[in-house]
Fold this protein.
Amino acid sequence: MKLKKTTYIVNTFGAAPDRLAGRKIALLADFHNGDPDPILEMLREDVPDVILIPGDVVLGYFPEGDDLIIDRCRNIITFLEGCAAIAPAYMSIGNHECLLCDEDYDAISATGTAVLDNEWTELGFSNEQSERILIGGLTSAYAISYRRFRNEVNSEHGEEDYVRYPYRKRPKDILKRPTDSSWLNDFVNEQGYKILLSHHPEYWCMREPMLSRRKIDLVVSGHAHGGQWAVSGRGIYAPGQGLLPKYTRGIHYGPYGRMIVSRGMTNPYDFAPRWGNPCEVVYIQFE
């Protein structure tokens, strides 16, 4: 499927540091171990100042023995190395990253991409305290749940019997399980313009942590795949939102900030081709 470039203009009305004016961010959601070449080519033709990757670089929930997931999804390394060579790249953890172990994350970090795992960092555009730009990454509840399960399994094993990917079916009650959002309290209280990578757009105002109610200037998301099929611009189905989902693309406003949702860069479903819903690389231009 052809890759589209979509640009959103964000007028901060003086709420953002002057250092953000004129800068642009590339939002790269839902890579799903796809083809990195057209994406990297687009980035090289229009170089962003920052690259944000809100999860789901991996494709699949099923381990293959004890082999590292990152070793069988080799396009991920090419993609992340290419991104980090173009601009500072930051990644959060989506539902498809739920199985990743420490060795997988070591390989990702070695690409030069910063992994934000329920944590935040400061973007180095300015040394002025009043002009700080903070970037955080909210980890999917799927990853939190699986880590607890892995720890439970391995608590009964010795170090030599450690299992990287103990398998279980995804819990049916995952939508009732919140992610770990306690760190967000410190994040929102920090001085500066705050950007949050949150793979799940339903975290905006459909379920905890209800990001629209927090003083976060910009949330970037993916996950919904544009609704898979679109009629008159309206998506038909999205994971976590069901039929006729509200948050599949575009800009959505809250009392304190806004959320931008990408349609995603690939189609992870061989059985369900996208229709009326192009894959996209999103650029966010600040004015």
